[in-house]
Amino acid sequence: MDLKQLQTELDECNSYQEVLVMMRREYSAIGYDDFFYAVQILESFKTPPAVAYSTLKQEWLAEVMANNYHLSDPISYHYMHHTTPLFWHVDDDWSKHPYGENAVEFMAAVKDVGYLAGVCIPVFSRECTRGFINLIFDNHTEQELVKVALGSLLIKYFHETTLRIWLEQEDQNSPLNVKLTQRESEVIRHIADGLTSRQTAQKLGISKRTIDAHIASAQFKLGCDNRQQLICMSTNLGLIFPSQDYSKAPSRIRWVLPEDYGIEF
Q: Do residues 209 and 217 touch, judged by C-beta distance below 8 A?
């Protein structure tokens, strides 16, 4: 596995189909011919658009859509609530799942189509796009853990490429393409911390009118109607986040060191 070469090839991809071809090549090489990978583009708090790649059986995909199984899939439920992988087997006790009987019905259908086990690996990015890849295999073994680790590494490359293609081709006006100025980001962070325009002006040594102008500019770029929406969208899109200024030392660090170090900070 040559990751540098993989990145070079992905940089040249201009379509989802090209990405899928590369995914099939890389995942087949480590033993996964059947997989399902979905990415949600979280541009706002509305129902997000998504991109889905699949090499699962055609009849299974048709059955999933015909029966709305995607609404009661316990595997996709996992990725929305956890960051850890889910190693699943069709014979696990699914009756205790939040989806209850619907989860039991779903996994019975999975078994009927011939899939027995797999792993769901959640994927997140700074822009709050999220997704997961579900890798199918027959049983859980120690050797499978090594392959899953490789699969977890690979999916990060395909995740970034999928987001790039979306922004370049699907929605060039997406708020994910918005670039705030350094001052706009700084002002929004102070407003998000609860400061008023006047307090922010005093802190930054500029006028209140200038602060309001930066806020108005950022609202226009993101299509926001008010400050609350501006803060929510800026945070959701990864344009601002806590401790964004890494040039300043963190105010609190809890050091956890081996007991035999004999030093304290």
A: no
Burial (0-12, 13-18, 19+ Cβ within 10 Å), 24: middle
pLDDT digits 0-9 by tens, 46-65 = 677 789 999 999 999 999 99
d(CA 79, CA 82): 5
Is 222 a residue whose pLDDT tops 80?
A: yes
Eight-class DSSP state of 98: T
Q: What predicted TM-score, i.e. pTM, was given to this entire model?
A: 0.76
Instruction: Please name every residue paired with 35 in a beta bridge, in sequence order, or none if there are none.
Output: 135
The CATH number assigned to the domain holding 225 equals 1.10.10.10
Domains in the chain: how many in total?
Answer: 2
Range of the domain at 209: 181-236
- Distance in angstroms (rounded) separating the CA atoms of residues 66 and 64: 6
Stated as kind and residue range, the H or E segment containing 209 is helix 208-222
Listed in order, strand segments (DSSP E) in the chain are 35-40, 50-54, 86-89, 117-124, 130-137
